[in-house]
Amino acid sequence: MTTIEEKINYYKEGLDTFDEDMEKYKFLLDQAKNCKPFPEEYRQDSFLVSGCQAQVWLVPYKKDDKLYFHSDSDAFISKGMVTILCDIYGGRATSEIINTDLDLLDSLKLNALLTPGRRNGVYSMLMKIKEYANSYK
User: Fold this and answer.
1) In this predicted model, what pLDDT tens digit does every residue of 52-111 receive, in sequence order?
2) Residues near 66 by Cβ (< 8 Å), separated by ≥ 6?
3) CA 38 to CA 102: how far, in whole Å?
4) Per residue, what are the HEC states of 54-110?
5) H/E element holding 5?
6) Is 35 annotated in the active site?
7) Contact status, residue 67 vs residue 136, Cβ threshold 8 Å
8) For the chain, which terminal residue's Cβ has fewer other Cβ atoms within 10 angstroms, N or C?
9) How does pLDDT run across 6-61, given as a tens digit for each residue?
10) Torsion angle, CA of 55/31/71/82, rounded to 10 degrees?
11) Are 4 and 87 in contact (CB under 8 A)?
12) Which residues are bridge partners to 73 per DSSP?
């Protein structure tokens, strides 16, 4: 299995192939289309990530001592981002998630692409993932 850093590098390499911001947006939108179906019973306020402009649901579950996530959003850019984050951090031991350096995500260089509100939302998603990891350890 790949490490969190290797997964981030995978997405970085994918994004680096695009010169234009619009192509990078399209990449994020494509990730949203790749999102697994979201179980409707989890579309509850208790699973909403606060701090996001859009509605973003993040639902943790544990399987074989690894933490996974169901996710969805009512906005495609946010859905693309949460899908990427769940791919990077899902299927991991809680200790790996807790001990990872969140600044690694800066290597994706999404700050130039995302509005300040969306950057705050991505940070809120990351904090929620870490919070879930701490509560499931």
Assistant:
1) 989 999 999 999 999 999 999 999 999 999 999 999 999 999 999 999 988 888 888 887
2) 91, 92, 93
3) 26
4) CCEEEEEEEECCEEEEEEEECCHHHHHHHHHHHHHHCCECHHHHHHCCHHHHHHHCC
5) helix 4-16
6) no
7) yes
8) N
9) 999 999 999 999 999 999 989 999 999 988 899 999 999 999 999 998 999 999 99
10) -60
11) no
12) 56
Residue bearing tokens 């996974």: 68
Which residue in 28, 35, 52, 81 is the catalytic one? 52
Q: How far apart are the C-alpha atoms of 7 and 1, rounded to whole Å?
A: 10
> Which 3 state secondary structure label does DSSP give 52?
coil
Return the CATH number of 4-136, one of 3.30.200.20, 3.40.50.2000, 3.40.1390.30, 3.90.1010.10: 3.90.1010.10
Output the six-digit token pair for 71.
């996710």
Q: Which residue has the tokens 């299995």?
A: 1
Contact (CB, 8 A) for 64 and 32: no
